[in-house]
Specification:
The protein has 342 residues and is an alpha/beta fold. It contains ten helices and 13 strands.
């Protein structure tokens, strides 16, 4: 058997982030609102998570992952001075589709009149957007696509139990959609400098959503009240994040041959303010290099990372020539990075 031919990619194609956009539900759920639903307090939530409020979708008004995702993509296209007719491909990161099929991406494409473009979903929990950025970048580098939409959209509050029984996880999550339009450019220096994608299904039991008794990793843990709600081993996930996060930054910097000082922004998944602050301290990063916005939105899963990017872009803090590292970790358990030269 002959050896497979090596894959040769065009060397003259760069990839730029042409546009950024976000969409948020109008409904705000504050910690004080939660005090009326369960045995908790604003002080307790802020001290342990940094969260003060989050947005919640309203399904009775037709608000779904595809609905908010379409709004975010439309905003990103406008920011890129493009129309839906310019889009060649759509990649959507989500773990909260309206139904098993059709995909959120297909529904989004139809909402916006995108015609028959390719569209598919990636489910990697809170890492979904970062993984999708890496995939979309390399698809553009093949020369087959010019403009690709990459959106993270999740409505995880539909899996939140707002009774006192589910208070340890329900306080964490919010709903949102955000993302980018990636575009081929004739500047080959733009695009990915390094990336990493990891998964450890052996630790999936620490963060999952069961829908049947057989979904429980330990049958002794089965409780009918847990069905359809996020189940999380808080201490285990916190320990995983605190150790994995700085190691992931170090791994990505090493692959790129850079130091933390060379990176202009660390755009991180917002799971817990204490985890982010610890990473900032570990690398001696100033606050303006690692934005924390979890206080306003909570953990928005796949929308979390691009929501930070959108805030930075609107504040005029992101521009060509910068280096930006996107980082996330979450259910799977998964963790990944995407380091870009803008």
């Amino acid at each position: 058997m002959s050896s497979p031919r090596p894959i040769t990619l065009p060397t003259n194609i760069g990839v730029r982030i042409a546009g950024v956009g976000a969409a948020l539900p109008d409904k705000v759920l504050t910690n004080f609102d939660l005090e009326k639903l369960m045995d908790t307090s604003d002080e307790w939530i802020v001290q342990r998570t940094g969260i003060r409020e989050r947005r919640v979708h309203e399904p009775e008004k037709g608000q779904t992952a595809s609905y908010h995702g379409a709004r975010a993509l439309d905003a990103a296209l406008k920011d890129a001075s493009l129309t839906i007719d310019d889009l060649d491909l759509l990649v959507v990161a989500t773990m909260t589709p309206e139904m098993p099929t059709p995909s959120v991406s297909s529904l989004m494409a139809d909402h916006l009149g995108a015609g028959a473009i390719g569209a598919f979903d990636i489910c990697a929990g809170c890492c979904g957007f970062v993984f999708s950025m890496n995939v979309a970048h390399d698809l553009i580098k093949t020369g087959r696509y010019k403009n690709v939409g990459v959106i993270g959209s999740d409505c995880l509050t539909k899996f939140a139990d707002y009774s006192t029984y589910g208070r340890s996880t329900a306080i964490l999550f919010g709903d949102a959609a955000a993302g980018v339009v990636l575009q081929a450019t004739d500047n080959p220096s733009q695009g990915l400098l390094a990336q990493a994608m990891h998964s450890d299904g052996g630790r999936a039991k620490h963060l999952f959503i069961p829908v049947a008794k057989t979904d429980f990793f330990e049958q002794d843990d089965y409780d009918e009240r847990k069905l359809g709600a996020v189940q999380m081993n808080g201490p285990a996930v916190f320990k995983f994040a605190v150790t994995t996060f700085p190691n992931l930054i170090e791994e990505t910097l090493t692959k790129a041959g850079l130091s933390a000082d060379d990176v202009d922004h660390f755009v991180c998944h917002q799971s817990n303010a204490r985890i982010l602050a610890a990473a900032r301290d570990r690398f001696g990063l100033p606050e303006d290099k690692l934005l924390i916005n979890i206080d306003h939105y909570g953990n928005t899963v796949a929308a979390s990372v691009p929501l930070v990017l959108d805030e930075l872009k609107k504040a005029g803090r992101v521009h060509e020539g910068q280096k930006i590292m996107f980082l996330a970790f979450g259910a799977g358990l998964t963790w990944g990075s995407s380091l870009w030269q803008l």
